[in-house]
Amino acid sequence: MNALEIKNLTKTFTGFKLDNLNLTLPSGCIMGLIGENGAGKSTVIKLILDIIHKEGGSIKILGKDNEESINLTKEDIGVVLDEVGIPECLNTKQVGKIMKYTFKNWDDSEYGRIIKKLSLPDDKPFKDFSRGMKMKLGIAIAMSHASKLLLLDEATNGLDPVVRDEVVDMFIEFTRDENHAILISSHIVSDLEKLCDYVAFLHKGRLLLCEEKDRLLAEYCMVHCSSEQLKILDDRFIKFKKVSPYGAEAVALRSMVPAGMPVSPVSIEELFVFMVKGDEE
Amino acid sequence: MKGLLLKDYYMTIKYCRSYLIIVAVFILISLFSNENFFFIFYPCMISTMLPITLLGYDERSKWNEYIGTLPYKKSQIVTEKYLFGLIVQLFVFALIAVSRAVGMNIDGEFVWKDYIVLMSLVFILSCVSSSVCLPFIYKLGVEKGRIAYYVLICIVCAGGAVATNVYTLEVQKNISLNMALPLLCVAGIALYVLSWYLSIIFYKNREYNCG
Fold first, then answer.
1. Please, is A239 exposed, middle or buried when counting C-beta atoms within 10 Å of its C-beta (0-12, 13-18, 19+)?
2. Is position B133 within any domain?
3. I need a surface site. Which of A257, B11, B54, B164 has the fewest CB within 10 A?
4. Cβ A19 vs Cβ A205: under 8 Å
5. What pLDDT sits at residue A77?
6. Which residues of A249-261 are buried (b: 16+ CB within 10 A; e: fewer)?
7. B211 in a domain, yes or no?
8. What is the pLDDT of residues A60-115, one digit of tens each?
9. CA of B186 to nearest chain A CA: how many angstroms apart?
10. Given an 8 Å threshold on Cβ–Cβ distance, is A98 in contact with B6?
11. With an 8 Å Cβ cutoff, are B65 and A81 in contact?
12. Rounded to a whole number, what is the distance in Å from the CA of B143 to chain A's nearest CA?
C-alpha cells in the first residue's frame, strides 16, 4: 500500500502557485522533499493535513482521501512542523499529559523513553528550550502515538550533528516496519541524502524530479572537463551543465559518458543545485 | 477535547493569574459598594476575555497551526474554547451571585425579586460580551480581532450603564420587567449559540499563511 498518493495537487497564494504536484510515497520508505526556502514544502505538508484547502487534485493518506475523516487519519500521522507550536509555558511532562488525552494510541512509556533518549528536561518550560530541543520534543510527540506516517517539516534543522545522527537513526529504525513511511522536507540536503529512499525536488511550486535516490545516483555522474571536451558528449545525455572560462561541469547519464572522460559521483545536493539553475535558465 | 481543556487550564494558571486576582478584588469591593455596579459587571467582562487571551497566546506560540496536525475536528477546536470560556464564566457568575447575596444581606436590603433582576442582567451582559469577540477573532485572527475587543468594551460600558439604570428603575420605580428579562436571557443564550456557530464556520474557512 502507498502511504501517500498525491495527484495533480494545486494551490495558489498571492505570488505563489503549487502546480499540479504528483507524488507517491510507498509504505516502508522515506521520501525527502527538497526545495529552497519558499519552494512550497510546508504548503505541501499543510495541504496533506488539510490545514489549508487544496484547489485541485487529490491526496490519499494510508489509502484514505485526506478530506474524509481527516481527524481519524491524524491518529496515524506524526507531524513535526518547522515551528513546533507548543505553548511556551508548558514543560515536557505537561505536554505528555495533554497528548495522552489527545491521541487514542498515546504511549506514555514510549514518550518517556524518547524524552530520556533525547535528554530533554522534565520541568523546564518550552520557552527556555533551544531550537534543537524544541525539535526534539516535536519528534518525541510524533513518535509516541503509534504513527504509521511521519510528516517532518525541516525537523532536523537546528539539531547538532550528534543528535541529528541519533534522530536520523530513529527515523531509519521507524521505517524498518514496512507499514511505516516518512515524508521529510528540508533544504539541508546532506541530511536527506543519508536518510531517504526517494527524493523529490520542488522549485517554486513545481516538482522538478521524483526518483529513487540510489537509482538517481547510479544513473548520473558529474563530468569535469574543458568546454571543448564537453562538446563530445551528446546534449541529450546531459541533464545540466555549467560552463565557465576555467572549465565545464555537467551532470550526465553515466552510461553515455565516453571512456576516459573525468567523472565523479554526483551528490543529491549537486543534482538539486544543477536542476534548479537549469530550470531557471 | 479533554487534552485541549487541560492545555488551556495550564495556560490560564500560568498566564491569567492576574485576571483571577482582579476578579476576586472587584467582587470583594462590590460587597461594600451596592450603588456601583461597575464592580459586578467588570469581572464578567474579564472572564469573557479569557478565551481571547488564550487564543492570543496560541497564535504567538504557533499552536494555532500545530493543532491542525492533531486528531481534532475543527468544530471541536472552536467548541473547546467556548466550553472553557463558559466554565470560567459560570465560576465567576457563581462568585458574583454569592457576593451579591452577601452584600445585600450586609446592607439588610436583600429582596429576592431585586436579586433575581440583578443576576439576570449580569447573565445577559455575560452572554453578550462573550458572544461578540470570538467570531471576529476566528474570522480575522487575534490582531485584527482586537477591534472587536474595543467594541466589546463600549458594549460593556454602555450595557453596564443601561443595566444599572434598568435595575434602579425596577427597584425604585417598581417598573415590571417580568416578561422582558426572561426574553432577554433567552436572547442572550441565542446570541451565544449563534456566536459559537459562526465561529465554527469562520474557523473552517480560515487558512494560515504558508511558506
1. middle
2. yes
3. B164
4. yes
5. 92
6. bbbbebeebeeeb
7. no
8. 998 888 888 787 888 999 999 888 889 999 999 999 999 999 999 999 999 999 99
9. 34
10. yes
11. yes
12. 18
| Interface membership of A71 toward B (CB under 8 Å) | yes
User: In this structure, what C-alpha cell is assigned to residue B72?
Assistant: 481534532
Print the domain residue range for B201: 2-205
Chain A residues in contact with B8 (beta carbon < 8 A) = none
| CB–CB contact A101 B71 (8 Å) | no
Give A192-213 pLDDT, tens digit per residue: 887 888 989 888 888 888 888 8
Contact B119, B97 (CB under 8 A): yes
Contacts with A83 from chain B: Cβ below 8 Å? 62, 65-66
Domain residue ranges of chain A, discontinuous segments joined by +: 2-204, 216-280
CA-wise closest residue to A25 among A52, A51, A62: A62
Q: Give the angle subtended at the CA of A180 by the CAs of A177 and A181, to the nearest 5°.
A: 130
* d(C-alpha A225, C-alpha A237), whole Å: 15
Size (chain A), residues:
281
- For residue B137, being part of any structural domain is answered with yes
Nearest to A101 among B6, B63, B69 (CB): B6
- pLDDT, one tens digit per residue, over A154-188 is 888 777 888 888 888 888 888 888 889 999 988 77
In Å, the largest CA–CA distance within chain B is 65
Distance CA A203, CA B45 (A): 50
Contact B73 A71 (CB under 8 A): yes
A90 to B7: CB separation less than 8 angstroms, yes or no:
yes
**Structural domains of chain B, count:** 1
* Residue A46 amino acid letter: K
How long is chain B?
211
Q: Which amino acid is at A114?
A: I
Q: Which residues of A touch B208 (CB under 8 A)?
A: 46, 51-52
Sheet holding A238-244, edge to edge: A238-244, A247-253, A220-225, A263-265
- At the second CATH level, the architecture of A2-204 is 3-Layer(aba) Sandwich (3.40)
Residues 138-197 of A with CB under 8 A from B: 151
Tally the C-alpha atoms within 13 A of residue B16's C-alpha that lie toward its C-beta: 24
How far is the alpha carbon of B67 from chain A, nearest alpha carbon, in Å?
Answer: 8
A52/B210 touch (CB, cutoff 8 Å), yes or no: yes
A52–B69: do the CB atoms touch at under 8 Å?
Answer: no
Say yes or no for a CB contact (<8 Å) between B3 and A102.
yes
Question: Is the per-residue pLDDT at B172 higher than 60?
Answer: no
What amino acid is encoded at A58 in this protein? S
